[in-house]
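Review session, final week

We close the course with one last complete record, chosen because it touches almost every idea we covered. It is CCHC-type domain-containing protein, a protein from Rhipicephalus microplus with 389 residues. Go through it on your own first, then we will talk.
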Amino acid sequence: MPRSHNRVIVRPGGGLNVQACSPHRILAALTMAAQLAPSVTEEDIICPNSMQNIFVVSTPSATNAAAYSRVTEIILTDQRHPVTTYLSPAGITSRGVIRGVDTDFDVAALNRMLIQPRNSSLLGARRIKNTETVILIFNGLKVPNYVYCGQVIYRCTLHRRQIDTCRTCGQVGHRQDVCPTLSTKEVCDHCGHLPTDNPHVCNQPVCALCGEAHRTGDRECRHRYQLPDLVRHHRQRRRRRKQAQQQTPTPATSPVPAKTPKPQGPPLGQRNPTPTDQPTWADKVACKGEAHAAQRQGHSPQQPDPELAQLKRMYAEQAKEIKSLKQELAKQQAPESREGSIISGPVSIRGAKKRAGPTLQAEEQSDFDRFTANIYAILEQYRGDHGRV
């Protein structure tokens, strides 16, 4: 049914079976009892509810809805059936309950005192039979905690609708006032079974809602209340939100690429470090000087240059070679050690050992000069490229 239509609930009595009646005849009987012309009811809709044994009339006209709500009796197949009608608000609504309201106020007085600016979302109110409990209908899916009835404030709770149970036929789904069977008793009030003997002996009752040993729909039954529409709507919205979150991948649930394993080398105790693995004293001094200079200038230390490191290593190796060459040259120039022992007998005295000739010394000196010149050339080239050692 359209949400914008006005809805009227029709509860027939007198044993009228909704499932066995034609909806066209029911609508014709309602329009005749409401004194409405067929031309003004062309857009009206009637829907039978066989489970609750009621009719729901939907109409876009507020005048037609008010006329339907005043009907108290309809005629079907030359038989009169009492009916109870009331308006149901259109759109999305929710219900609340207040208790302790005086029974002296009728429905019109209750609506006049309750519908006020302080209860902005309240649409209407109706009393449950002749009790002090009043059901309130609010617009939307929010029920306030407190409402004002005139100058009195009442605590408002969420309405929990009971599952309809019939004490006449013992079935679940409709109430006793709209039972489609005859008004005579068919089942026992205490046990809910059909009386098969006279006098009737009650058997152990079994609840049709929970299966426990009590009467169906008893106050002790924990399953006699329906889930409120407001709670059902919130659960459905939460379920849809959860499904949407599961369908949309999040960064936490997105697949993470596997890390490539690093090649593992030999254990630390079995590694053979090469001379180039450990930095020399000159390298350490140069790196410390660069770091201190960068800190004084307010800059972070620069990353080591691979070309500079290679030149430093070459300089250290060539310095070692120069040192070794100097040691060999000093050994060749030193006089040969004399023997300390005395030799008996005539001994021919050997002359002193001749020193290396000038040709050999010149060749060694030229090699050393060339090597030194090569070192200075490399250093000059590095100064020209980088401007520092």
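Two points worth writing down before the exam:
The chain has seven helices and eleven strands.
The domain at 93-158 is CATH 3.30.70 (Alpha-Beta Plaits).
Good luck, everyone.
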